[in-house]
Specification:
The protein is built from 13 helices and 15 strands. The chain has 417 residues and is α/β, with parallel strands linked by helices. The protein folds into 2 domains: 6-41 and 294-416, Aspartate Aminotransferase, domain 1; 45-278, Type I PLP-dependent aspartate aminotransferase-like (Major domain) (Aspartate Aminotransferase, domain 2, 3-Layer(aba) Sandwich), CATH 3.40.640. The strands form 4 sheets. It has a 7-stranded mixed sheet, sandwiched between helices. It has a 4-stranded antiparallel sheet with strand order 11-12-15-14, covered by helices on one side.
Amino acid sequence: MTLASPALTRAIKDRFAHVDSCPFTGPRIFFENAGGALTLHSVVETSAKFAAIPDNQGRDNPASQALTAVIKRAKADMALFFNAPDGQFFVGESGTELTFRLIRTAIMGTPPGGKVIGSSVEHPASRSAALHWAGVAGKEYVNVAHDDATGQVTAQAYAAAMTPEVQVATILHTSPVTGIANDVAAIVSAIRGVAPEAFIIVDGIQHASHGGIDIASYDIDGYVVSPYKVFSRHGYGVAWASDRLTALSIETLKDGPAGNWEMGTRDTGAYATFTDVVSYFDWLGGETSDATDPRARIEAAGQAIHVHEQSLTDAMLNGVDNLPGLADLPGVTIIGGRENPNREGLVCFALDHVAADEIVEQLNAQGIRTHIRRADHYSGNILNPLGLKAAVRVSLCHYNTHEEVRSLLAAMKDIAG
């Protein structure tokens, strides 16, 4: 069954809160998923359940033991979802905080001298962390320029900048501005071909909701996601660290358990709500395939999500029925280009005769939620080279439909005309 099936579309939507309406403004189409995806009903229920429990882990009572079991299961579910048979998972304040922590550990834990390499396409979560801690440690930061036309950084670009002195590398899986994914495995291969012992940290925050994470195939040392962007809630991030990264001098309590990344008492509800996310992918893979193995169902869900979202972005760019696509509007710039096979559920565009903030405002007035990206510290690395002060980001997920795309295109036809 495809995700475009009416029955499955309804079943999917029924699992999410506020799927067709905003609790503040009423009915609306949600095309702001890159800013935070919709939340599963199960996550809301689980959050409330664990928020009410007064007990903590590590006590000699049944409630404490039950909480510990929930965390243990969640870590196993994370390993299944990310396909990470070794290393360890832990939660923190946010994806950004965890990205800083992993990068700080790698940079400060490597010998003096050396280099840190990253790309200009990266979100400031990884780029700021790498620049800051490289400066503190006295290591040279090497910038790999992304391609302005495609919004992507390639393995070849990394290879051209690599030297054996590189000790730490950062990679962005998918850009929250362009929506274009980078080939993590190929970039890692380019890095390790020159500096095989480098520590490699990947920002997977934007990529996670679109399915298809396979840590076992990447040969990396860290991977971070923000669960509120993958159907969970705000207030925590999830990180995976390789055993060799954990073997460095990590920040932990003196005389505490060796290799323990967790700081203080954990939020059991955070772990439990990620189990809800994994269970959802498992269910979706069962609806879209005949797979019986849980990992196979998760992979099937990711494949179905990719196919459906590609169909939606193709319609958004190229038009449907008698409605012109965004790429056919007068004076349009499509960031990343019209034909880009690496696009994941996001189209970012600008018009030369209608300001981005005006477009967002007019779409909001018609019940279509999008977002403006300005040439600031979040998006200036992408927009400034294109000569754009701002752009409109239309970001979708697999619960969005072709009917919603038609509504967007009809509204944009009037706005641009």
